[in-house]
Amino acid sequence: MKKLxxxxxxxxxxxxxxxxxxxxESVAEEAALLPGGGSNIIYIITPSTSNPFFNTEQxxxxxxxxxxxxxxxxxxxxxxAAKQLEYFEAAITDKAAAIICDNAGADASVEAVQKAxxxxxxxxxxxxxxxxxxxxxxxxxxxxxxxxxxxxECWVEAMDYGGKYAExxxxxxxxxxxxxxxxxxxxxxxxxDFEMVAQQSANWDQTEAYEKTEAILQANPDLNGIICGNDxxxxxxxxxxxxxGRDDIKIIGxxxxxxxxxxxxxxxxxxxxxxxxxxxxxxxxxxxxxxxxGTAPAEEKQLVECVAITADNVDKLSAFVYTE
Amino acid sequence: xxxxxxxxxxxxMSAACLTGCVKIIDVGTEGQYTGEVAFDAAxxxxxxWAQIVQEISDSAKAAxxxxxxxxxxxxxxxxxxxxxxxxxxxxNGKKNALIVKADGFDGAVKVQIGSIYSGTAIRDLQTLKVFxxxxxxxxxxxxxxxxxxxxxxxVVAPLALDDSVVGKKVTITGAAEGSMDELxxxxxxxxxx
Lengths: 324, 193
Hints:
Chain A contains ten helices and 14 strands. By secondary structure, chain A is an alpha/beta fold. The longest helix of chain A is centred in the first third of the chain and has 30 residues, at 2-31.
């Protein structure tokens, strides 16, 4: 019996001692590059391409990947995590070399990315981050905080440092909604002569933004400005202001869409902040190619600067590409 | 004897099982154990400030030597001297700037003197911290803002500048953005003669 007890204790001690080295080994394994599935196919999975922003991801990503010699398969998950998971599983079955993905939710996408990782397929995330580090090779996103602050500074100047304004928020469950709002206010709230008379969500939607703006204008005839969480809502707000005969209202958005650019040119929109999605997507494809050839990116989380677009530089913007 | 051994074994197992389970952590003190502390941009910028000033000063290029190539990078460290030609004041005196005719540089030079500062030039120029050191974009943005607050507290506010500075000679080291035609400088050092 004594022997048995001693044996158990000894085994436990040895186990404890070894657990450190096993951990060290798994860390070393994690540091090794994923091999890819074995084929020459790159999967590009994005939200619906009916939105030109996401369409740009597929168009630019495909062109870059084909230029680098890959076969490309594009899919839209329509912001449905279950559908996204199916496409990731298809990529695994297809022995994809890599996956480029604008994901369907920071938490909901972790499972899909983990599956690809476990299958040895590297995932390169664009536009949106996930709430997990170490399973995607890159997370390349636009610096929304910097972009919001930059265009807010242009707006504050256009408003002559004061006035009554309203804010149209995006989808309140979306991280970007608050990152943008907080950084608008980080700039605006420093000036005591601004008064926010309404703050409502229009859920990133143009029609909802139009209707909300209509109501806000009726309730606040002395309104001077509107800050919007994205260009889609900004365009809705602009249209409502035009229809109400209030083209004096100073409005900003964020995205850098061509529709917003047209309103900047016509003087109805003060500006927008361009999320350089074409540049982000190209970078992701280039990093996937370099990774498959043995070079991992220096950092997983990478920020790409937004460009404040106003009447001064709007001519340099087209299809989410800013040309110096 | 068997019973004694069994008793010892049971006691040892109980102790092993309970290890790590009975520590009671008071609310609000979790960070001492997890290492996770609330983000404080001002604390970060305060402790980094001296090093950042040193870094920018060491790498500063004379304005007279600037070329268009220097603006390939978004922000450039610059040192310049010149005469103040205008004290620009906007937003009820909260957004002020010195317009300077810099020696050896033909473009217009605007020096931000707060108390509200635009942009992230100081943060973007320094290399002490990178985005990965922060949890998210908002913290990274707050760090930029906190560094701008250091500019005001350490560099500008002590000088109590007003329009009497017009016509005087100033020497400025800072983070510059813009072009050869128009330069906006956020100062890390500013002296008035």
